[in-house]
């Protein structure tokens, strides 16, 4: 399911327009991104938790040349599914 399919399905289920649903979904994505950038976690009870994990610097290998390269440290977003979501899937 891509974003437009998700918007269409949520709009139909909620009984609102797809344009309104798209604006709300964009606002949610933007707000979660800003919260993670600020160092906060976003917990949606029953759905899951969005958080940031720190990835340490490491050395890697360029697959085309075989040369060793340094990969810089970075922050990576992580999603951990909640129990209700896990139960729905299984």
UniProtKB/TrEMBL annotation:
Molecular function per GO: DNA binding; identical protein binding; structural constituent of chromatin
Leader sequence residues: none
GO terms of biological process kind: chromosome condensation; DNA replication initiation; DNA-templated transcription
Alphabetical list of InterPro entries matching this protein: Hist_DNA-bd (IPR000119), Histone-like_DNA-bd_CS (IPR020816), IHF-like_DNA-bd_dom_sf (IPR010992)
PROSITE patterns listed in its UniProt record: HISTONE_LIKE
Function of the molecule: Histone-like DNA-binding protein which is capable of wrapping DNA to stabilize it, and thus to prevent its denaturation under extreme environmental conditions.
Protein family according to the UniProt entry: Belongs to the bacterial histone-like protein family.
Record-given protein name: HU family DNA-binding protein
Phylogenetic lineage: Bacteria, Pseudomonadati, Pseudomonadota, Betaproteobacteria, Nitrosomonadales
């Amino acid at each position: 399911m891509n974003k437009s399919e998700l918007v269409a399905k949520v709009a139909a289920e909620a009984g609102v327009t797809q344009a309104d649903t798209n604006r709300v979904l964009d606002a949610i994505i933007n707000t979660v991104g800003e919260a993670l950038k600020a160092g906060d976690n976003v917990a949606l009870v029953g759905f899951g938790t969005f958080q940031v994990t720190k990835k340490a610097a490491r050395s890697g290998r360029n697959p085309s040349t075989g040369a060793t390269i340094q990969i810089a440290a970075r922050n990576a977003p992580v999603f951990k599914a909640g129990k209700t979501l896990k139960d729905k899937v299984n």
